[in-house]
Amino acid sequence: EIVMTQSAATLSVSPGERATLSCRASQSVSSNLAWYQQKPGQAPRLLIYGASTRATDIPARFSGSGSVTEFTLTISSLQSEDFAVYYCQQYNNWPYTFGQGTKLEIK
Amino acid sequence: EVQLLESGGGLVQPGGSLRLSCAASGFAFAGYAMSWVRQAPGKGLEWVSAITNSGGTTYYPDSVKGRFTISRDNSKNTLYLQMNSLRVDDTAVYYCAKVATSIVAGNTNENWGQGTLVTVSS
């Protein structure tokens, strides 16, 4: 099973600033990497798939990069609605696995 | 608009069974793979099963293999998860999700339902 590790459990950033979230895979997942956003009491929402492709209706301030084992989600200018938990997830090998999540909180 | 509505959750004793349903609308259900993902209270996310559009191929992680069965009825636009031999650590919100294409391999979930809570406790 591929283990996904998100380096920060919590990230404190001020509104308007840039946030950079990291995710590492225990073995290659090629570009089969997705990022999800989850707010309290809500289902996850797909932000990024294929490591760098924004999902439908996702604002351009969200961008993804990386391949193989190292991946990054960048939010260029944080809006109030962006404070949430973010999960990376590999879909290269079954069972598909998620990172443990990074909580993005207001500084 | 894609809509996924889960039902069937509730309280069950350890060793018991439960069947979850997911009613899908707003897209061509028979053309897409589907999945179930769960989230224990205050914890992260875990895929618990997936199924191709035809139902011909199913996927399970070791944690539920032999206890859970995913199925679908394309004539009713409904996805199911039969859960047997339930354990306390199966307690979670169970989400139904639509995979991006007809196959599971190399694809992920693009739409999610709101989830149904399963509580396994004596």
User: What is Rg of chain A?
Assistant: 13 Å
**Helix/strand-derived class of chain A?**
mainly beta
The share of residues in extended strands of chain A comes to over 45%
Q: How much helicity do the residues of chain A have?
A: under 10%
Q: Identify low-pLDDT runs of chain A.
A: none
Any overview of this molecule?
The complex is a heterodimer of chains A (107) and B (122). Chain A is mainly β and 107 residues long. Chain A contains no helices and 11 strands. The mean pLDDT of chain A is 97. With 122 residues, chain B is mainly beta. In chain B, a hairpin with a 5-residue loop joins strand 4 (34-39) and strand 5. The mean pLDDT of chain B is 97. Chain B starts with a strand and ends with a strand. In chain B, the strands form 2 sheets. In chain B, strands 2, 4, 5, 6, 9, 10 and 11 form a 7-stranded mixed β-sheet that branches. The chains are: A mainly beta (107), B mainly beta (122).
Spell out the key features of this protein.
heterodimer, A: 107 residues, seven-stranded mixed sheet, four-stranded antiparallel sheet, 0% helix, 49% strand, globular, B: 122 residues, mainly beta
